[in-house]
Structures are given as C-alpha cells and as structure tokens.
Specification:
It is a single chain. This protein has 274 residues and is of the alpha+beta class. A hairpin with a 4-residue loop joins strand 3 and strand 4. It is elongated, with a radius of gyration of 27 Å. Helix content is 56%, strand content 13%. It starts with a strand and ends with a helix. It contains 8 helices and 7 strands. The longest helix is centred in the C-terminal third of the chain and has 53 residues. It has 2 domains: 122 residues, no CATH class; 117 residues.
Length: 274
C-alpha cells in the first residue's frame, strides 16, 4: 500500500507566492486560488538536502504550508527560508496551528476517511493537492477561530465597563477593535476562500467527489459558517459600542451648547441691569 504523509502549518496570515516564485526562478504568476508547489531541484536548493520524487512543499497564499513526505528536521529550515520573504513569520511557535494526515492508496472500491488518514482506491496526481488544500484550510481556520476568541476576550472588559455605567469609549479603542474585526473578517471570508474549490474539481468528477468528502469530513463549510456568524455578532457589538459612544458625545455637545446659551443670557441680563 502506497502511503504519503502530510504536515500542515498555519504560520501567518498571508504569503506572497510570487515573491517566492521569483526568488526560485519560477516563471509563473500565481493567484490566490492556486498553491505554489516546490519540489525537485528547487526544493533541494532551498533545504540543501537530497530530495526524492515524492517529497513536495505546497505554500498557500492564505499563510498555510503543507509538507508532503518531508522529514521533521527539514521543516524549520524551510520556515527560516520563508522568513526571508515575510519578516513577521515567527521561528518559535510557528507550529501552534498544526495538523498531520496520511493518504493511503488501497485496493478497495470506496473512499475511506478517518481522523488520521484517508484510503483511496486509485492513484491520481491531483490527490496530493486536494488533501493539501483541505488540511491547509483546516489549520488556517483553526488559527482564525483562535483569533476570534481573542477578539471576544478583548471585548469583554468593554462590556463590563458598560454594565458598570462607564459608557465612554475612546475613538482609538473603538477604531482598534473595529480594525481587528475587519482584519479577522478579511483573513477568513476573503482570503482563506473556504467556499472556493480547486480547478480540477470542475473538470474531474472523481476529484470533485474526493474533495467534497474531505471538506465535509473536516467540516470546512460548517466551521466557516460558525466563524461568519460570530463575525457578524462582533460587528453588531462594535456597531453598538459606536452608537452608544456617538450618542454620549452628541449629548455632551448638546449640554455644552445649552451651557453657552445660559452664559450668554446671564451676560446679556447683566448688561441690561447696569
């Protein structure tokens, strides 16, 4: 039975594939929809080790990297290489959002999926990319889900202040919170492209069947909908804070105007009494 191991890491929010391609001498322009596949002599030049035909690294624009049949000691050197492309990549803790999987080519007639491996009764080149796409999106979603929890934790003290009657929230704090929500929404809904399918699935029914089963098993669509719903809740909360803050500032301005009118009346009265 042929076996292939996959290790997926969500190491950042965005990777410019064209910068890597240019650095590696790959004459191709990459879009968000397709991964950059590194193998053969190019991968050998990056890792400075011997590379077999079944070893590949797939880099995704939404910040995930999938290592196929790559030894554990060869992963960090590649992360160091990526850091030369994107400086904010952390060399420590890059493996916080991680998953591994195995693809087995069996002799049965049906696709079998488990938490640790998939058994497929046929050997096709597209299988490597489809497994990589699914687990790359899965770890990217895991990272996004964690970021979402951090934003809710950030909002909690603001809600506590409202409950205590402390209604004033600074413009800077509101802007920072809104920016975090927008960044989260962009990274999730716009960039990970959960609902987009690889091109091969539109022209190959077997590829589509396998991809759909993998996506359903990893609950990509369900997790996406949950994240999307929570993001809408965050937007509603931030809009509520903004409305309260604007109302308080409007009321403050109104009281200032009233106070100025009263002062003006007092001054006019004092002039008349002279």
């Amino acid at each position: 039975m042929k076996k292939m191991s996959f290790k997926a890491y969500a190491i950042t929010n965005e990777i410019d594939l064209n910068k890597i391609a240019e650095k590696c001498g790959i004459p191709k322009k990459y879009t968000w929809e397709e991964p950059l596949i590194l193998d053969g002599d190019i991968l050998k030049g990056i890792l400075e080790v011997s590379i077999t035909n079944d070893q590949k690294i797939l880099v995704f624009s939404f910040g995930s990297v999938v290592f196929i049949n790559i030894k554990a000691q060869e992963i960090q050197p590649f992360v160091k290489y990526l850091k030369t492309i994107r400086a904010d990549i952390a060399l420590k803790g890059y493996d916080k959002y991680y998953d591994d999987y195995e693809l087995q080519i069996g002799d049965g007639t049906e696709i079998q999926l488990t938490d640790e491996y998939a058994i497929v009764p046929y050997d096709e080149n597209y299988l490597l990319e489809l497994v990589s796409v699914v687990i790359a999106k899965s770890v990217a979603l895991e990272k996004t889900e964690d970021m979402l929890g951090n934003i809710f934790n950030h909002l909690e003290p603001m809600i506590d202040r409202l409950e205590k009657g402390k209604l004033r929230i600074s413009h800077k704090e509101l802007a920072n919170t809104a920016a975090r929500v927008l960044r989260h929404e962009y990274n999730t809904i716009s960039y990970i492209m959960i609902l987009d399918k690889p091109d091969i699935t539109w022209i190959n029914s077997s590829a589509e069947e396998f991809y759909n089963q993998m996506s359903e098993f990893f609950e990509l669509n369900d997790r996406y909908e949950i994240v999307k719903s929570k993001t809408e809740i965050l937007n509603n909360i931030v809009n509520g804070f903004s409305t309260i803050s604007s109302s308080i500032r409007g009321l403050f301005v109104e009281w200032i105007i009233v106070l100025l009118i009263v002062v003006e009346v007092i001054l006019m009265t004092a002039e008349l009494l002279k």
